[in-house]
Protein: Glutamate 5-kinase
Organism: Cecembia lonarensis
Amino acid sequence: MGQKVVLVTSGAVAFGRKNIQLPEKTNPVLKKQIWAANGQIDLINTYQKLLADLGHSIAQILVTKEDFRDRKHYLNMKNCIEGLLLQGIIPVINENDTVAITELMFTDNDELASLTAAMVNADTLILLTNVNGIYTGPPERPDSILIQQVNHDSRDLSNFIQASRSSFGRGGMLTKLNMAKKSANLGIEVFIANGKKEGILNDIIDESAQCTRFEPSPVKHSPKKWLAHGEQYYKGEIKINEGAKKALFSTRISSLLPVGVVTFTGNFEKGDILRIVDEEGKRIGLGRAEYGLKSLAEKIGQKNQKPIIHYDYLYLFTHE
């Protein structure tokens, strides 16, 4: 149909667990690394066979959160994926569980999918699960109703969701909801649908699927999409005064200047992500540093200086 598809998958650990029996006393992190290293072979071979039978080539990309932290590394990954798509090759992306340690792990593959969708400027993100979407109660209850449309002004749906997760995964429906809302805010149409339903992707395309759809906001620029997911990656924090805060939230396009900076913390260099807070410590947004902390220390509070965060690399939380 001419659609370019990027596939984000899990399953390496599950394949490895099936293949290899490990002693109970084995360190849990090491267990997962061993299973992932072994299972990744079966996982990618399975996709290669399934898609080769349909006439498609695939490529494997293994990533960690670190790959999304650095803007240069991020763009290299983006260029690779876009290059594969231009050649008609389907990128199959999975977390590199063999090297990821706990603090650098994605919440689950819904977070990885959301990051990837923003990175490649996807118009649609489909999160497949084992139920039809988000319900007003536990899906197995007969009185629970499927929520088919979520708009910008829809009520908070998190109260409807039960905290549960699979034996192999780390996330659950709440992560799907949070990632779907964030992606929709960036201008990406999102569906949460039942991956066990035959022909579900075709049903989504022809708008006949029983699923939950999230209405997309106006599309954000690519750097702002990168920053929107940067809350866990910031290297420093900047506290700004009330004047700077008003300027950032005004209708005029405004960069953050050193004259508006009160204090800063962290150890950051040019290109690192900074978190912006007001004088009360309230989170305002994220931005990319135009220079490092030494230069900022020299310019803080001064007028007629180069912006510490340019508007093009500024993401404000109130846009969510």
